[in-house]
Amino acid sequence: MKRFYKDAAIEEPDGEKTGGVFRILLDGKPVRTPGGKFLAVPGRTMAEAIAAEWRDQKDEIAPVSMPMLRMANTVLDGIAANRHAVAGAILRFGEHDLICYRAEQPPELAALQERSWSPMLDWLAARHGARLMACAGLTHIPQPQEALAGLRQAVEGMDDFALAALHVMASVTGSLVLALALAEGNLNPAQAFQMSRIDEDFQAGKWGADAEAETRARALARELDVATAFLAASRG
């Protein structure tokens, strides 16, 4: 799509007119989401970030270069009307959390997972009262109901914008534990991503890296960075 506007700006909150949120304007006209809702977000930080993405477009609009806009559209068109389903999808990562399933062999990998992942389970138990069980092997183990209840309370207590970020974080890492630690500032994106890639990095160190896998890993790491920035902006 060709660029059809000259400038992008934000509209300050104005009581009932905007619902207390910031709207994005193109040449003075409010932007709408693909679903027809006004593009309105909490906080100046996020509004300015989205407006900047619009300003940075060249002659052709490239949606791939507007990750904050895409995530805001997802919240307004999807998550706001489907909180229960989104929360359920996130919680399923906790029911089958990556860091609860440890390698049986080789011993070096099992020891590395133990050193990296067990402190995160301890953090979760202390922070949210959710003690998840870990096991060797890939056979599913049911988690204690009280632990799942603690996870549910943590997830359902988040607003729609935080849920959008948390869903991306859990999807990229395969772990609700790592996603919550990242969302709450206990880990940074690089740390969370590295912890989620222990198996892959161990195998690459042993057998050599695969170019295609490395390209995919870089793309996933960027998604995690965007989700973290989106969450920070929504709270800004």
Concise structural overview:
The protein has helices at 44-55, 67-77, 83-95, 107-128, 145-156, 160-173, 176-183, 189-196, 198-207, 211-235; strands at residues 8-11, 22-26, 29-30, 40-41, 101-102, 135-136. By secondary structure, it is an alpha+beta fold. The longest helix has 25 residues, at 211-235.
Structural topology:
Blueprint: E1 8-11, E2 22-26, E3 29-30, E4 40-41, H1 44-55, H2 67-77, H3 83-95, E5 101-102, H4 107-128, E6 135-136, H5 145-156, H6 160-173, H7 176-183, H8 189-196, H9 198-207, H10 211-235
Parallel strand pairs: 5-6
Antiparallel strand pairs: 1-2, 2-3, 2-4
Commentary on this structure:
The chain is of the alpha+beta class. The protein folds into two domains: 8-61, ATP12-like (2-Layer Sandwich); 81-235, ATP12 ATPase (ATP12-like fold), CATH 1.10.3580.10. The protein is 57% helix and 7% strand. The strands form two sheets. Strands 1, 2, 3 and 4 form a four-stranded antiparallel β-sheet that branches. β5, α4 (107-128) and β6 (135-136) form a beta-alpha-beta unit. α2 (67-77) packs across α6 and α7 runs antiparallel to α8. The longest helix is centred in the last third of the chain and has 25 residues, at 211-235. The protein starts with 7 loop residues before the first strand and ends with a helix. The mean pLDDT is 95.
